Amino acid sequence: MCGAGPYWGTLQLLWLLLGSMFLHHTPEPVRPCWSFRTCAHAMRDIQSFHQDTHSWGDIGCSFMVGSVGYLCENQGWPWVSAHTEDCSTKGFSAGIIWDFSSTLLDPDTLALVQDELQPCAVHSGCAQPDFTLPHTKL
């Protein structure tokens, strides 16, 4: 839907129930994406960077979150992604499409992760009900 390319390689299944969902942010774009067009453009750029620079199969996060309420599935629930060195098989990941290292995360964006994505992980049987939400930089 956003015009991203295909996954490179073979997907690897995760052992579910997982105990964490890592919350990342992207260094680019510096500002939040406030339209589908700008979020889709950022997704394509992030995918190119992760595939071409890191040789990952796709975007490193299981899901990406745009500032206008867009929640995009990358690998999704049952698959290992490349989000967190040595922890990619211990939790899912949600990447926020903008750099919030020097500012507070938009409350609506965080609410999308906490109120929609986290409960979905639990209700679908993929995550433990008491799983944690650590933060890292992508």
From TrEMBL:
Protein's name in the database = N-acetylmuramoyl-L-alanine amidase
Which GO terms fall under molecular function for this chain's record?
A: N-acetylmuramoyl-L-alanine amidase activity; zinc ion binding
Q: Which SUPFAM superfamilies match?
A: N-acetylmuramoyl-L-alanine amidase-like
- Gene3D superfamilies on file: Peptidoglycan recognition protein-like
- The positions making up the signal sequence are 1-25
Q: What are the BP-aspect GO terms?
A: peptidoglycan catabolic process
Under the heading InterPro entries, the entry gives: Amidase/PGRP_sf, PGRP, PGRP_domain_met/bac
Cell cycle keyword on record: no
Record keywords: Signal
